[in-house]
Design goal:
heterotrimer, A mainly beta (395), B alpha+beta (580), C alpha/beta (333), B: 580 residues, alpha+beta, five-stranded antiparallel sheet, 20% strand, C: 333 residues, alpha/beta, eleven-stranded mixed sheet, two-stranded antiparallel sheet
Chain lengths: 395, 580, 333
């Protein structure tokens, strides 16, 4: 890959005949440029300068100078100040590649060379830090995670396209099996799905689709179109049947309580039951942004104005009271946080500090009586990360 | 020219003169008043402009200083990077009602320009290049006139400079308003006046820089005079109804350089129209006055001249012989008295004429009696003698009676014949027949008469001389009567020259007719004789009936001719007859 | 406990917002645009409104005034959260900002001046610098010296700093730096002395500006040209001109495709297709060698967004509208 400032037409012809493939990595790119620089210098020393116009990780950028000078020495030249041969290296980037643009000059001879290599997916996850609320990453993947459920030694990961069965071996999750999930209609945006396990069997709730399956002896799955209500559990206390609005991401408000009473409440995203002073209360994160506090019969009592749309009720192990984990309000694109609250008839009281997550919560379901599963979409890496949130007692 | 016409003329001239005089006086007074009023209006407008200009200056200075004192300007002054403020001037200008506003850094570079947003960063050296002007001096200077460069050219503006300070940092606030058509429109112009502004922004006179009018070519000399002299001037521009009195006021800039000329034009149309109106009014009044004057003078002169006219008419009647003509006496004024006098005069004339006629009739009768007595006495005396001779002869000389009787009877017969002739002549005169008109050549009659009387003339030792014009035209006349006139005049001439002389008969064309002159070289006539010459039975001779010249006059009169006599004693007489 | 709860409630109420993290279905996104789009039908090519065809269906189109797009229940990727997108056209930028401030609009365009005036903390979405502002010479302008003189006369940095308020990038390249990686190789600095020497005896030129937003830039270029001794008259668009000040969009994230498209848009020869940055640089250099096109700036699409709009950014790096994933907060009860 050679280019010059003058004689562009000849250069274009030359370029068309030469190999124009990108280098494998930064080292290969640096090496190719060093060779050309040495050839231009004809054995003379090279005065090199560097600058970075890219998002190249600091570690890679830091090694550029050494790599170039080393490669230059290997090519028969060397770096020295105030040399008549000047090389100015600029690290740049395109959406697909990193570039090193070298502007070399030897007297009146000026050359521009560009070496490139493809940008790799990089980036380390940012682990959330919890203080009183323990949030533990349990799984991450680029594909969207709708829900994760555990059973015995296995883990089911529900995505928009499939259900994957993982088993643990050597402290690592290994794919055991998977089953595709398909729908006759396109999934709605902000697709929600929920796994509910009972022993080795499980149910999957998806918009317009209901699946039953079994993990033993092998993963089996039977899906059919259904507008049946979803079963929403909350700790050991509450259970609620709620109908997900067709092609939407919220429940339309038609619910059936534990007593079998049918009720229509305001549309909500999620619901959790909580015990307060011996009473069972329900909290529903409504689509208008408020969290509605209701009694066991779902009669409104009060409202919590500022919660996120995802809540889950858990039986906390500390304090003897049930609590509600709630996301915080904010933009769906912004990093979210989880916080645990106790709820009275008219207000909520935080009992933990917020636990920050690397991105917005895309799924939040109770995971057993004492934990909740939160899926966050990492804004940096783009991965979906599943966390298990539990309240850690101080004692 | 009749008296009435003269009177009408005098009245008309008097009326027209009066109206013209009044018209001239009114026009002159109006023009003077108008000029004075126009001067006052121009002065008022100039004063208004100055007042408006001063008010604008104060407003602009206040607005600019207000901006400079605002938090916005102070905040900008406090900053080191002005780039974010490049559009602020426009909003500040709009908020403070300024057309032009620039925020300028301490080094003179433009931070923001409302009038030329793209000009940020360029230097306004005029702000900072004045070594003797400190930033704060601008505050005291107030607003001033300045040539401002704009994207689409240059303009004239009233501008002020404010200074915004923040600690030891400062920025200039240069704001103003255009001096343009909009500014002119704020001047309350009376009807017929207009204000124009010439912006002296180009090296040469540029017609397009004249705001408020399109007659730059007409105004150019005045503008250039103001530019040259740098002081106020005035001029009359145009002519007629489109003429204007233009007052030019120089407008100086920051360095006393002439940046504009204010022109206050006052249309003279009003004056011209007023003058035209006055002229029309004058003409109308004059016409009305003339007509009225004519009517009044006609009426007045009619009143005045009618008696005079009647008087004249009566006079003409009197002259024509109607001596009994009188004039109606209507008034008791001088005309009335004149009429009374006329009436008295005619009355007296009639009386005198009657008396004269009566006396003349008496005299004529006496003359006739005398003539008759004279004519008849002459034959009667021989008759008496003859008869007495015959009686004496018979008584004394019977033997001779026969002889005497024979001789006496002859004498009696002769005398009786003479008497009969005398009576016949009188009868002929009385029975003068009407002329029988025929074409007559007067020369022929004259020549025949001379030929007829040739023996008698010769016998009387009179030389006959004829001067007959060959160009004499033929006239309509009675040849027998004209021949009789010639004979009578010839006989009269022979009688007038008992000792001989020269008879001259002369014919000649006269006017549209002919003239006959019969002149003798006799003893001539006295004036009194001339006056009475044609009186019937008047004669200066010892013989004759005295009817000769009367017959002549009668014939001439019957031919509508005229006879006159010219004579001096001792130098003969000349009878002149004009016929047509 | 009650006191704490009260305090929390009070604090949250004082925040004055009801928000939900999870996307909310329903609601209308009110968009305001400066462009009039005075056509009888919605545009079929380009960016912005065209992108609404993915997920929305046109419901009302009044060219020059407004347009309404309704959510398509059968859209690939699912029905958009929004019920509809209402677009007001021909809205001046200043009024757009006021509308956003007063809650009459949810999404507005931001010009450089509006960015400067925008209150702190305003939520904005910005694309990559995808709009190329460039001077394009008429083919009849055959004086290469004058073209070069004008290229050297334009003080890009000052314009970028002041008029564009540092929005986007100064550039002398067709492809923006983020797309090619080498745009910085094209020098952007003005060289007035050299421009003056090249412009000696230059005939007067006319510069046509189509977009009123570019008028101030054109006026500044006129001043730059005057400083170099070139008489440049800025004329309205449509009049025959020697030079046009244009804005052309980068159509693709593929540099080679974008270069070809830009060359076509500017009436330049089609560059050879290549995947190599070096060859692409050479091709672009060749395109600009005759200075028939003088790139000046690369500007991003910048939008200001109401806080009630969630799920953003609603635009892609190329400035495409991605409104399918947007939703708006529920109205306050």
């Amino acid at each position: 890959m050679l280019g010059g400032v003058t004689e562009w037409r000849a250069l274009l012809l030359l370029l068309s005949l030469s190999s124009l493939q990108a280098a494998d990595d930064i080292n290969a790119a640096v090496l190719s440029l060093a060779k050309k620089t040495a050839a231009l210098a004809h054995g003379e020393a090279v005065s090199a300068s560097y600058r970075n116009l890219s998002s190249l990780p600091p570690a890679d950028w830091g090694g550029l100078r050494g790599a170039f000078e080393s490669a230059l020495r290997d090519a028969g030249s060397r770096v020295a100040d105030n040399s008549p041969v000047e090389a100015r290296l600029t690290v740049s980037q395109t959406p697909a590649q990193y570039l090193i643009v070298e502007e070399a000059r030897h007297g009146d001879d000026r050359q521009v060379w560009i070496a490139s290599w493809n940008r790799a997916t990089t980036g380390a996850p940012t682990k959330p830090a919890g203080i009183s609320l323990q949030v533990t990453e349990i799984w991450r993947q680029p594909e969207q995670i709708l829900d994760v459920a555990f059973f015995n030694q296995g883990m089911l990961v529900l995505t928009p396209a499939k259900l994957t069965l993982y088993t643990k071996a050597n402290d690592a999750w290994i794919v055991r099996d998977s089953a595709a999930i398909s729908s006759s209609k396109p999934w709605p945006r902000d697709l929600r799905g929920h796994l509910r396990t009972t022993g080795s069997t499980f149910q999957i709730y998806l918009p317009g689709l209901a699946c039953n399956g079994n993990t033993a002896p092998s993963l089996s799955l039977d899906c059919r179109a259904s507008e049946a209500p979803w079963v929403l559990e909350s700790g050991n206390r509450g259970i609620l049947l709620a109908t997900l609005a067709a092609s939407r991401n919220y429940f339309d408000g038609r619910v059936v309580t534990q007593t079998g009473a049918r009720k229509t409440v305001a549309p909500f995203y999620s619901a959790a039951s909580v015990e307060s002073q011996g009473r069972t209360l329900w909290v529903m994160a409504q689509t208008d942004g408020r969290a509605q506090i209701a009694d066991g019969a779902l009669e409104p009592l009060g409202a919590i104005p500022q919660w996120g749309s995802d809540i889950a009720g858990i039986d906390a192990h500390c304090g003897g009271a049930s609590q509600v984990l709630a996301t915080r309000p904010g933009d769906y694109t912004e990093p979210d946080a989880l916080q645990s609250f106790t709820v009275s008839e008219h207000a909520a009281t935080p009992v933990t500090a917020p636990a920050l997550l690397p991105g917005p919560v895309t799924a939040f379901w109770p995971s057993g009586p004492a934990a909740a599963l939160a899926v966050a979409h990492d804004n940096v890496s783009g991965d979906f990360i599943a966390y298990l949130a539990t309240v850690a007692c101080a004692n | 020219m009749t008296f009435r016409t003269r009177l009408l003329l005098i009245v008309t001239v008097a009326v027209v003169t009066s109206v013209c005089l009044v018209e001239w006086l009114v026009s002159a007074t109006t023009r003077e008043r108008f000029e004075r009023l126009e001067t006052q209006r121009v002065d008022a407008l100039v004063a208004q402009f100055r007042s408006e200009y001063e008010r604008r200056r104060l407003e602009i200075a206040r607005a600019v200083n207000g901006i400079a004192a605002s938090d916005t300007a102070v905040n900008i002054a406090a900053k080191t990077d002005y780039s974010t403020f490049y559009a602020d001037a426009a909003s500040l200008a709009a908020a403070h009602g300024l057309d032009l506003l620039e925020l300028v850094a301490a080094d003179g570079s433009i931070i923001s320009s409302a009038e030329w947003p793209a000009r940020f960063g360029y230097k306004e050296d005029w702000l900072t290049s004045r070594s003797n002007v400190s930033p704060l001096d601008w505050l005291a200077r107030g607003a001033f006139l300045r040539r401002e460069e704009l994207p689409d050219g240059v303009t004239l503006a009233i501008e002020a400079v404010g200074v915004a300070t923040a600690g030891d940092r400062l920025i200039y606030v240069v704001g103003g308003q255009r001096l343009d058509r909009a500014f002119l429109s704020t001047l309350a112009l009376p009807a017929g006046m207009r204000a124009l502004l010439y912006r002296n922004l180009q090296p040469q006179f540029t017609p397009s820089e004249l705001i408020g009018g399109d007659d730059a070519a007409d105004l150019r000399p005045l503008i250039e005079r103001v530019e040259r002299d740098k002081r106020e001037a005035g001029a009359l521009i145009g002519a007629g109804a489109s003429a204007e009195t233009v007052h030019a006021l120089p407008l100086a800039g920051l360095d006393d350089n002439l940046l504009g000329v204010l022109l206050v034009a006052s249309a003279r149309r009003e004056l011209v129209e007023m003058e035209a109106f006055l002229l029309k009014l004058g003409i109308a009044f004059a016409s009305f006055g003339i007509v009225l004057g004519l009517a009044l003078s006609g009426w007045a002169t009619a009143r005045i001249t009618r008696p005079v006219k009647r008087l004249a008419e009566s006079a003409r009647k009197v002259a024509a012989g109607n001596w009994g003509a009188t004039v109606e006496v209507v008034t008791a004024d001088e005309i009335g008295q004149l009429a009374q006098a006329f009436n008295r005069m005619t009355h007296e004339l009639v009386e005198q004429r009657e008396r004269l006629v009566q006396s003349e009739r008496v005299a004529a009768w006496r003359e006739l009696a005398r003539r008759l007595a004279h004519e008849l006495k002459n034959p009667l005396f021989p008759l008496q003698i003859t008869v007495e001779n015959m009686r004496r002869a018979r008584e004394q000389y019977p033997d001779q009676f026969d002889e005497v009787f024979r001789e006496g009877s002859s004498t009696l017969l002769a005398e009786l014949a003479n008497l009969r002739q005398i009576v016949s002549r009188f009868s002929d005169f009385a029975k003068m027949p009407a002329p029988a008109m025929h074409p007559v050549q007067l020369n022929d009659i004259a020549a025949e008469t001379v030929k007829l009387f040739a023996p008698q003339l010769e016998q009387a030792h009179i030389t006959a001389r004829t001067e007959l014009s060959p160009n004499l035209r033929t006239i309509m006349a009675d040849p027998e009567q004209l021949s009789r006139v010639m004979r009578n005049l010839t006989l009269n001439a022979i009688d007038a020259m008992p000792k001989g002389g020269t008879l001259t008969i002369r014919t000649m064309p006269h006017e549209e007719g002919v003239r006959l002159e019969v002149a003798d070289t006799g003893q001539g006539l006295t004036p009194e004789e001339c006056e009475r010459l044609f009186t019937p039975y008047y004669t200066t001779k010892t013989h004759g009936t005295g009817l000769g010249l009367a017959i002549v006059q009668s014939v001439v009169s019957d031919h509508r001719g005229r006879i006159s006599v010219a004579s001096e004693p001792g130098r003969g007489a000349s009878f002149r007859i004009d016929l047509s | 406990m009650r006191i704490s709860a009260f305090i929390l409630t009070a604090c949250l109420l004082s925040a004055g917002a009801y928000a939900a993290t999870r996307p909310r279905y329903g609601g209308i996104l009110r968009v305001e645009l400066r462009a009039p789009f005075e056509t009888s039908d919605p545009p079929q090519s380009g960016f912005g409104i065209v992108d609404l065809s993915h997920g929305f269906q046109i419901n009302l189109w009044e060219g020059g005034r407004r347009a309404i797009f309704n959510a398509d229940d059968n859209a690939p990727g699912g029905r958009p959260f929004l019920d509809s997108v209402e677009i007001q056209l021909s809205r001046p930028l200043r009024e757009q900002s006021l509308d956003l401030e007063t809650g009459k609009a949810d999404l507005i365009e931001l010009g450089p001046n509006e960015i400067r005036r925008a209150p702190a903390g305003r939520k904005t979405w910005s694309s990559q610098p995808v709009r190329i502002i460039a001077l394009a010479f008429n083919p009849r302008a055959d004086d290469a010296r004058v073209r070069e003189a004008l290229a050297l006369a334009v003080d890009r940095a000052t314009i970028w700093t002041v008029i564009l308020q540092r929005q986007g990038e100064v550039s002398a390249a067709l492809l923006p730096q983020w797309l090619s990686g080498y745009a910085f190789l094209f020098p952007t600095a003005a060289d007035l002395p050299r421009a003056r020497s090249l412009a000696a005896g230059a005939k007067p030129l006319t510069l046509a500006v189509g977009d009123p937003m570019l008028r101030t830039i054109a006026d500044r270029i006129q001043l730059n040209a005057r400083d170099a001794g070139i008489t440049l008259t800025v004329a309205p668009s449509g009049s025959p001109a020697d030079i046009r000040l244009l804005e052309v969009r980068v159509p693709s994230t593929d540099p080679a495709r974008s270069l070809a498209a830009l060359a076509s848009a500017f009436g330049l020869p089609e560059p050879p297709h290549t995947d190599s940055p070096e060859a692409l640089y050479a091709a672009e250099r060749a395109l600009l060698e005759e200075r028939r096109v003088i790139p000046l700036f690369h500007l991003p699409d910048v939008y200001a967004v109401s806080p009630r709009v969630k799920g953003g950014p609603g635009i892609s790096p190329l400035g495409e509208w991605k409104f399918g994933d947007l939703w708006v907060e529920a109205p306050r009860p």
